[in-house]
Amino acid sequence: MTNLRLADRIALVTGAARGQGAAEARLFAREGARVMLTDVLEQELNEVAASIGDAAIPFVLDVGDESAWQRCIEEVETRFGGLHVLVNNAGITRSAPLLETSLDDYMDVIRVNQIGCFLGMKVAGGLIAKSGGGSIVNVSSTGGLEGVPRMVAYAASKHAITGMTRTAAIELAAHGIRVNSLHPGGVDTAMLGSPEERRSVDYSWLPAGRLADPDEIARAALFLASDEASYCNGTAMLVDGGVMAGPLGWTPPES
Fold first, then answer.
1. Can you tell me the distance from the alpha carbon of 147 to that of 141, in angstroms, rounded to the nearest whole number?
2. Nearest to 12 by CA among 147, 119, 93, 105
3. Which of 110, 147, 218, 228 lies deepest, with the highest CB count within 10 Å?
4. CATH class of the region 10-238
5. What is the 3-state secondary structure (H, E, C) of the chain?
6. What is the pTM of this model?
7. Roughly how many angstroms between the first and final C-alpha of the chain, as a whole number?
8. Could you list the active site residues?
9. Which residue in 190, 182, 185, 186 sits closest to 236, CA to CA?
10. How far apart are CA 23 and CA 27, in angstroms?
């Protein structure tokens, strides 16, 4: 009897060339899954797949392209015979005040973060149902639960993921598919700048006093992907070190 939490499962992880996606793909493989890794960063994607070994197959995927998604899912079925877990992790951001945000920048973020997640659920959902059901994990953000100054497109896309997740959870339950959203706070990845830039920032104001390691987010994704979360459906799981617990940097006046 195996203790591997994803034994005999097939998983697909988007945005798997680095950061959270790479950590999720590696952890899922260690827990017994065969994994399709996708990203637009082909060289980095191939390197991550090679580091995992025979359990991983890389596939270059633009998550905003429906026909590319269809080719990807066909490849998953051909190579693995089914699909049980989808992690919609791919994401980008643009930083600018609302009044200075161009429509092109706004739509770039929406296309990857929001439309990419929608297409993943729409196209992959049928194969997961055909494979006997499973789990979809949509990576949102604390920015999917609150406003984010200078990141209007990112906040809009992550709020959309939260809403889509809850709707999909209701609709797909009849197909044996659980759908949950994951809401990281700040994570120590390239999205927050170079390693030097991230080291130069004082994070002591955060309740945890630091950024999350990508592996900490991956372990939360693993829980939602596994049967350990068999009664979790439509939930928004925070992995934020306490950021959303209450106002930061504020104390009530003395009475």
1. 11
2. 119
3. 218
4. alpha beta
5. CCCCCCCCCEEEECCCCCHHHHHHHHHHHHCCCEEEEEECCHHHHHHHHHHHCCCEEEEECCCCCHHHHHHHHHHHHHHHCCCCEEEECCCCCCCECHHHCCHHHHHHHHHHHHHHHHHHHHHHHHHHHHCCCEEEEEECCHHHCCCCCCEHHHHHHHHHHHHHHHHHHHHHHHHCEEEEEEEECCECCHHHCCHHHHHCCCCCCCCCCCCECHHHHHHHHHHHHCHHHCCCCCCEEEECCCHHHCCCCCCCCCC
6. 0.94
7. 61
8. 154
9. 182
10. 6
Tokens of 12: 């697909």
* Cα 55 from Cα 60, distance rounded (Å): 17
Which structure tokens are listed for 136? 């979809």
Query: What does the block give as tokens for 231?
Result: 């009664």
Per-residue pLDDT of the chain (255 residues; tens, 9 = 90+): 468 999 999 999 999 999 999 999 999 999 999 999 999 999 999 999 999 999 999 999 999 999 999 999 999 999 999 999 999 999 999 999 999 999 999 999 999 999 999 999 999 999 999 999 999 999 999 999 999 999 999 999 999 999 999 999 999 999 999 999 999 998 887 676 667 777 778 888 788 888 889 999 999 999 999 999 999 999 999 999 999 988 876 666 675
Residue type, 176: G
List, in order, residues 6 or more apart from 235 with CB less than 8 Å away. 180, 181
In one-letter notation, the amino acid at residue 20 is Q
